[in-house]
Design brief:
The complex is a heterodimer of chains A (269) and B (307). Chain A has 269 residues and is α/β, with parallel strands linked by helices. Chain A has six helices and 14 strands. In chain A, the strands form three sheets. Chain A has a nine-stranded mixed beta sheet, with helices on both faces. A two-stranded antiparallel ribbon of chain A has the order 2-5. Chain A has a two-stranded antiparallel ribbon with strand order 3-4. By secondary structure, chain B is of the alpha/beta class. Chain B folds into two domains: 148 residues, 3-Layer(aba) Sandwich (Rossmann fold); 144 residues, Rossmann fold (3-Layer(aba) Sandwich), CATH 3.40.50.1220. Classes of the chains: A alpha/beta (269), B alpha/beta (307).
Chain lengths: 269, 307
Amino acid sequence: MSTGYQIIVCGSIVPDPLQTLEPVVGPGGPALKNEMMLPAVLDPWAGHALYEAAHLAKNTPGSKVWLVSLGPKAKLQQVMMTVAQKVPFELVALDGPAGGFTDSCEVAAALAEAIQAVPTLDRSRLLVFGGWESASRGAGATLQMVGERLGILDQFQGVDRLTVGNDGWLTILERIEGGKHQVSTCAGPPAVLGWATGHLPEPPNNPQVGMANMRTIMPSLQRAKAVRVGAEGVTFARVSLPSQRRETRVVKDRSADEIAREIVAWMRQ
Amino acid sequence: METILFLGHTESDGSLPASALEALGAARTLAGATNGSTLVVGLVGGDVRAAADGIAGCGAARFLGVSGQDFRQSRYASDAAAVEALCKAAAATLVIAPGTSRWNRVLPGVARTLRPWIILLDPGCHGPWQGERGAAKLEAVAVDLSEGSMRTTVTGVQAPPADQQTIRPDAEVLFVAGAGWTKTQADGKTHASEAAELILGFLRKSQASLGGSKSLVDLKGEGQAVLPFMTHLNQVGQTGSTPRHPKGLSTCCHGEEPHVVGWRFVNERRAVNLDPNCGWARGKADVLYVADAFEVMRKVNALLGEK
């Protein structure tokens, strides 16, 4: 009998967070200006999920990690050159848009279909991971729909820690309001976990892991199925950056005393 | 003709959270602006009677409730079943609910199965409904939970002791500490313990909520001894939280775009930084004080300590 977990991480790419993004409206709807030219990274939330998955797999013999990723194939390939060096996984690539202007429902359908097509999928060992939000679109709705499509009723969002007991039960910490965590126990897989930051730092690059991963990544990219996802039935009325431009008063050459008095007076207004 | 379902869940004491009253206010506004629409209230919780009575005067045509021990817990499977039953009982075409962690977890999944329009409203987006208590005519909606719905049990809540809790969503002021607090200072040394003392002293005296930049909270994950009370829960920005406070004071933080994105609901903003060309100076703060935050916060704490 097989043991260990089958951990499927859903995660894609986003423009590097240090880039200034400018929304534009084109013939196909809203998009980001020069989107294909922007440097991309693995979505930070998905990254946390991937590192947590690898950590769990490493500590649970017989486990395996897949990364199911929907994005433009060329961009995926670029990002995978870096991500592949972090932790061991097998890539399942889907060629399609990765931007913030797609409908969660359509994305979830594509991801669920890809997950169901994974050979040897065993629901009794299945953990579906992903970010609880996305740096391109913080709707936080996709994973729940993936879970529903897979018929998984045990779902957790904003997860910061997962521990496995000797009896196989899972203990999960989820973020709730006011800087607190809700603690739940679950009777093992299948389950969906949308990760917040987790508790692990980003792993250092490991060229050996990178070489092993690339043996499956390149074929996966080559056979990546083209997927049509958009936002059928949805019309985006307006897309704009929050207006944050202020007339900043820069105060120099004032003593700490004067500044402190001004700050306290402002706080007490 | 729309049937607008306001969907709320009770807290552990049976009351509705403040964000639920805001969502109810929004649902009422929308119902009032939509000809021929009907407002229905749907509540989930251990016992929803008190919550229903608390909003009896909101003008809803019906009050529906799913109650019982199984629905006291914030658990995906039982919540999904309860919400689905309420949506069907109300014949809802539009659902408005507060964007709480409980509803954020479950409503997208329900949207996939039922497909009404569901709007989760972030706290602070709408004024709360205010009105008289009364005796609501509460209709109980029965939900049969399958065995598979009970595999998860909520066992409790973990929180720092009240006097060590640095995240205060209702605080007047957000205080953000950046990585500069842990960097080498003018004397060529780091002063992390003094930084911690100054920051905690300020939080104690001002009752402000503490936020951090990603670069600061990441230092902890990298194994560096920094500010022990600063965790990822404090992180504000693109990959952190987007808190809502009337005022925000940033210290030792460069005001990079991914961080400042998290300030979009902070109305009045001031910053203290030694760099006059930092991000805050470029239209992101109302006032930038070019000064040493250690010195300034020492003085601020002294002033706050005065009666």
